[in-house]
Amino acid sequence: MDMETTVNKIKVYASKTPSRWREEAEFRIGNKTWLRYSQTVAMKMLDRMEELGLTQKMLAEKMGCSQQYISKILKGKENLSLETLFKIEKVLNLKFINEPEFV
Amino acid sequence: MTFDNITEDGRLWAVRYDGEVDNALYIILDRWNDVRWLRTFFKNNFNDLVSHFKITDINQAINDTLDDAERLQYLIMDISSEADLDELFRHLEPSRMKEVLLGKEKAKIKNRRQHASWLRIYAIKLSQGIYIITGGAIKLTAAMQERQHTLEELTKMEMVRNFLLDESIVDSDGFEDYLRELK
Question: Which CATH number fits domain A23-90: 1.10.3720.10, 3.20.20.70, 1.10.260.40, 3.30.1540.10?
Fold first, then answer.
């Protein structure tokens, strides 16, 4: 069976809706730098949550946000605002950013 | 199940299983970039991580996975029309010397520093240079049969093979060749 015949047979079973895999992959490549930072934040948060015995629900209550949002942060895929980073630092007693020196 | 075209020329496909949000490639790349998912996985498989890779730091395991997932992602994205997919995929069983119809294949990163990569992309070879990705796994043990999550990948490969045969996506001549191979 030649390649064209095989491909044509497979095409009959092609998905009706387009896949988002390439879009997601391009997003990961295009946002690689801050995504890695977000992933590091998530790792540190998960370590501290385990130390403190905090669930996602408990952390969401302490931070005043939804559990769904905490879940997104812990995946390491969220572009965190300074406000959110500050809240995480405060609630979990972590330090991600050194305070700038004002002259 | 349906199939998604991964390369424009129809040489690489990925299975979209019934009830899943997207295809198998999307799902494995999503998981391998999800810190919480990876942490849970390595916690559940900590003994294998220590005994087979001598790694005791889960965050190191997560970071290594993120690095390897990125390299695999580039490998797939950079497949050109001239690229030979038979170079990317290898027989699942290294001892298999002959081609079989709808052979089970794997792709992994070579020449990784510090330790061998544990990421695997699994596929069925449709014919020369044409593959269908069925899934992927973090393989920490020597044999896939040793752990439930890798055993499930074998089951998925078998399910896709059967689908391709049942729907006559492969020709009967080839199937007879395959049966002769089994004898």
Answer: 1.10.260.40
